[in-house]
Amino acid sequence: MDDTFAKFRRLDPEKIVETAETLLKRIEERFPGCGLAKVVAELVEVTRETMARTESIQKPNLLLRCVAVVLSLVIIGTLLLLLKHIRQFNFDDFVNSMQGLDSTIGSVVFIGAAIIFLVSWENRIKRRRALKAIHELRALAHIIDMHQLTKDPETYFSRGPKTAILHKRDMTPFELNRYLDYCSDALAVISKIAALYVQGFEDPVLLDAVDDVEDLTAGFSRKIWQKITILEHIRRSIEEERQ
Length: 243
Description:
Elements: H1 2-6, H2 13-30, H3 35-58, H4 62-87, H5 94-149, H6 153-156, H7 173-196, H8 204-242
Helix pairs in contact: 2-3, 2-7, 3-5, 3-7, 4-5, 5-7, 5-8, 7-8
């Protein structure tokens, strides 16, 4: 029973890949050869790459961790030597004793700083790789937004003269509704891909970056659904005029 509910508490990368592939098939079936299909095809590849990237990021770097363990043993050994020499301090030679103590403490601090650097180095490497992938997702979101940018319901079905600059694909209100809906679905897939990077790698900087992507895609989706609402209003107006 626990295993049954556990699968609903984590994102499944394979399910996200299946969703992206299904979305691509839907777009290609209704709008063959359109630019949005090419972008979503790239999104499918990014989704597959994300599975390998997240597994690599979540995998521990054994080399760096071994180095950190060795340095930890060194600092412990240095501390033991420090305690041993403290017992041998001669208060008649107080100046030399303080110089030796200061040098030993400086060495301990340096080694401790090196350990902290190596431990955080692993996280920084993983964070840099994840942030690079997040930037790619952000770029894809902007590209999808560009594809729906010219799909304005009010001008798409206006009865005024058409300009020669803006070439639009001939669509019915239903087809335009589907096109905008596909754009919104693609943005939702992008936000889920971004969430995969923080699912097994807790990092505050990366979490903020993922939140930014989710806010970005949500904002784009709100604009799309505003267009869908306007489109529905225009459709009803056209039906009323025909009656």
